[in-house]
Amino acid sequence: MFTESQIYTISFDGKYVNLGILQEKNIYQIIGARIKDIRELKGMTQLDVASICNYDKTTVSRIEAGRTNITIRTLQNLSVALGVPMKDIVDI
Q1: Helices of type H across the chain
Q2: Residues 78, 25, 18, 38: what is their CA dihedral angle, to the nearest 10 degrees?
Q3: Reported pTM
Q4: CATH code, 59
Q5: CB 3.0 to 4.6 Å from 66: which of 1, 2, 28, 92, for a disulfide?
Q6: How many Å is the Cα radius of gyration of the chain?
Q7: Which run of H or E residues covers position 84?
């Protein structure tokens, strides 16, 4: 498990991007904002996404605000609901 003091480096297409020192909540906020952007581009409401994923609307709201831990299963469900590959959600 990474701590706040560790440096996160992610590989995209063989290139490494140093994201600097990030706190976990910042990653959740970035991913949540990405989900919201994709949802809005698709013309969907939070309720639309929640219904497809079988979540409460408040769950989608918390995810988009970065106020909850996102599991791989949740990312998979959201990617299906939004009609995008999971990598499009987490490609920060």
Answers
A1: 24-41, 46-53, 57-65, 72-82, 86-90
A2: 30
A3: 0.73
A4: 1.10.260.40
A5: 28
A6: 14
A7: none
Task: Give a yes or no: residue 3 inside a domain.
Answer: no
CA distance 81 to 92: 20
Dihedral angle of Cα 42, 44, 49, 52, to the nearest 10 degrees: -80
Token pair in block for residue 28: 């959740």
Range of the domain at 32: 23-90
Chain centroid to CA 6: how far?
Answer: 21
Q: For residue range 6-46, what is the model confidence (pLDDT) as tens digits?
A: 444 544 455 554 555 455 558 899 999 999 999 999 999 99
Report whether 90 contacts 75 (CB < 8 A).
yes
Tokens of 13: 């297409």
Q: How far is the C-alpha of 92 from the C-alpha of 57, rounded, in Å? A: 24
